[in-house]
User: What shape does this take?
Amino acid sequence: MLEETGLEHELRPVNTKKGEQHLDAFLKVNPNGNVPAIVDRARPAGRETRMLDSSAILLYLAEETGQYLDAATDCPELLSWLFLVSSGVGPSSGQSVHLQHAAPKKLPYAIGRFRREAERHNRVLDEQLAGRECLVGESYTIADMSAWGWIARAAFVRPGIDDPLAPFANLGAGSLKSTPAWLRLGPDRRSSRRWMRRRGTPSSRPTARSQDARDCREFNTLR
Assistant: This one.
């Protein structure tokens, strides 16, 4: 989103594997101790604004710049899909990733539950995109950006399947004509290509110099 809007910004990585999200310096930005988070230092009268959640950050930047919100009449539905991702797609996919890739003990019931939830959310998104270019309205919005972040990692969310998106015709990376908004307008956009080059691989995070960390997760600061 920062690349798409053209806002000047600085990336500061926070190494969550080392627990750097719990350092006092980061907790001053996000008391909840997770990433991403931003600080906007360009507010009137020199005030700083901090934002703590992915969806809140997307909405804040969209409102500040007037970009990627589509028509005002679509706002209620846009907010519905944006927060469906943050309250449904993200948590279920995140738990699926943790239980399969990080948990010290594999729990079949828990893994199965969150894999099924991730699959169900894929179906919901796929059905919404039937006959549409974007999730909401007629143009690419923050709802598409938010959903693409998880759809692009489907193989990591549901490993062991050759193509976890194969059953979902509107989510797969097939022909350009049938590719959904977040694949056609996401990584194919110039700014998204710059972002992907920064990140390296789809499952990695951007890196930049920092006093406290060297890699892993992003800590975005708007100067």
